[in-house]
Amino acid sequence: MNVYKIYLDQLTQLLFNFKSDNNLTFDFNEILTKLTLEPPKSLDHGDMSTNLAMILSKYLSLKPIQIANMFIGYIAKLPGVDEVNVAGPGFINIKLTEKTWNSCLKSILSNEKKWDATDLGNGKKINIEYISANPTGPLHAGHTRGAVFGDALASLLKEVGYEVTKEYYINDAGSQIDKLVNSALLRYEECLGKKIKEIPEGLYPGEYLKEVGQKLVEQFGSDLKSNEPSKVSELVRQVSLDVIMKIIRNDLLRLGIEMDVYTSEKEIISGSLLEKTLSILEDKDLIYKGILDPPKGTKPKNWEEREQLLFKSSNFGDDTDRALKKSDGSWTYFATDMAYHLDKINRTNGNLINVLGADHIGYISRINAAVQALSDGSISIDTKVCSLVNLLEDGKPVKMSKRSGNFVTLSDIIDAVGKDVIRFIMLTRRNDQSLDFDFKKVTEKSKDNPVFYVQYAHARCNSIFKSANVLEKDLLADNFSNLTTKEEIELIKFISLWPRSLELAAKNHEPHRLCYYLIELSSLFHSLWNKGKDDQSFKFIIDNNKKLTNSRLCLVKAVAMTIRKGLKILSIEPVLEM
RNA sequence: GGACGCGUAGCUCAGCUGGAUAGAGCAACUGCCUUCUAAGCAGUAGGUCAGAGGUUCGAAUCCUCUCGCGUUCACCA
């Protein structure tokens, strides 16, 4: 029951009739893609506004205003329409009757679950890969934003009907794993009683590896190293990864995140996917041996001109072709990542989303190229880049030192401010904007803190039900014709915008829009609440008027419901009391 | 030097894939608590949308160039 959709359908019908009545030849579908019915910026312009006349102007070679005047008579006759007028360069503004809005509220309350249903996703499959942090240590501050963003986007897409797979790629191969193994072995020796002065530069110094050392002693005793070196390293690798991935999963759970699929890089390498990938690319003549030009400008110090196996990613808009094999003959990260993306394409049978940190921005175009090449352009991949988060404590930067292993972990942040605060604040900025996360501000109980502001609105709704001595669930939808004040109608209008906001957020892959919607809804509600302070007649509970009280409480219920819908998508618990 | 992103009120940021007079919060100033939570609300003031061109009925939004900030730049992951 999306009002905007209902009237857009009616407009489409009018347009269709107009076209056939006048034997016009314009491309109907082309017009439809441009046709909009939107809430105007200013409420003075009515409830909805369409660009119908402006887009037709080109095809009919008439001025927009002339065309608009041809339509307004028809639009005015549509059910529920109060006024229609032409304004500005040719907008057609439509004002709906109070009754229409009253019945909107009714249908919202009587279809709590379905009123914002949409067919946007329509069961289409989509795979979203996020976090994918190296399994060499616990998640830290830098991973938090991508984790929250990816997770919110995933549930947003699920909400609008996509079949979503949430995926974590475990980089359990490559040189950082060798470092991990060596670091763990030191902890193993330490656990056996050997004194470790300091973890050497280049290895992982974090305390969490002590647990790995301990586990190794428990499982293999003191003679682990009597095995063949390759076997030792494999055993240590497995135990280390087990321990660390358990820590990571547990931290994610505390943040409210459960991934559907964990895929191992090592398994991609040892399986047949790499060969498959190469043969697909070879068939398309996209692989060759060649010499890359050094990067323009500053030349890397140890640049070595060398023939290597290359993928023609420049055919697909990348700046240069990309290497598939390292100088030691092993596959590059990119080569296995291509195979991994082929794997995702095959499993998903739908579009892909990757969530990356800003430091990987240079990597995007080659992955786009790979996906395009491997899917013959049939699969689209949208890479969302999350910019830096500046951790602050009352305006001053929190010091982090990776070298000592003394960085702020995700777990620390959850301990300090809680999951709900992290999730909301991380989404109060567009993903490509950098964000300040101030430990003091985000826990402040003031209007300056959006989490608090929205939660307070929800708690206030609940407190009103309490004062009225009713249970929210017992409030029943009525015809609501007694809700007539400007403020009440405006609130209903804004709630009616929810399905539209949801769809736009999903379409654009921008979950932050939900936060802004919730903040604005809360603001409208706080505003109306306070109006009752100045003028008793605006109070929700009117002592000698049961019917009006019921209607107003229902409006409050609709606010609470909508806030909960939004918070649920963000995986944030609504608060009942503060 | 190349690539990508960003540049909107004093500060922090929205701006609905091109719409009407560019919007919030903070800070500043002025009001509102015997009342459903003042942890809030109302009002005032604040703008060359970095700059210059272009595209069209119409540009903060799209294109080109310039300036500034950030990330990144064979073989790492």
What can be said about this structure in brief?
Helices cover 49% and strands 12% of the residues. It contains 20 helices and 15 strands. The strands form 4 sheets. A 5-stranded parallel beta sheet has the order 7-6-5-11-12, with helices on both faces.
Explained architecture:
The chain is of the alpha/beta class and 578 residues long. Among the domains are: 3-96, Arginyl tRNA synthetase N-terminal domain (Gyrase A, domain 2); 175-254, no CATH class; 450-569, Isoleucyl-tRNA Synthetase, Domain 1 (Orthogonal Bundle), CATH 1.10.730. It is built from 20 helices and 15 strands. The strands form four sheets. A five-stranded parallel β-sheet has the order 7-6-5-11-12, with helices on both faces. Strands 1-2-4-3 form a four-stranded antiparallel β-sheet. Helix 13 links the parallel strand 11 (351-357) and strand 12. The mean pLDDT is 92. It binds one RNA strand of 77 nucleotides through helix 3, strand 10, helix 16, helix 18 and helix 19.
Note the topology:
Blueprint: H1 3-21, H2 28-34, E1 37-38, E2 48-50, H3 52-60, H4 64-76, E3 81-87, E4 91-96, H5 98-110, E5 125-129, H6 141-159, E6 163-170, H7 175-191, H8 209-220, H9 229-254, E7 261-264, H10 265-270, H11 273-283, E8 287-291, E9 307-311, E10 322-323, H12 333-348, E11 351-357, H13 364-375, E12 381-386, E13 389-393, E14 396-397, H14 410-417, H15 419-426, E15 435-438, H16 450-468, H17 486-496, H18 498-507, H19 512-534, H20 546-569
Parallel strand pairs: 5-6, 5-11, 6-7, 11-12, 13-15
Antiparallel strand pairs: 1-2, 2-4, 3-4, 8-9, 9-10, 13-14
The chain binds one RNA strand of 77 nucleotides through helix 3, strand 10, helix 16, helix 18 and helix 19.
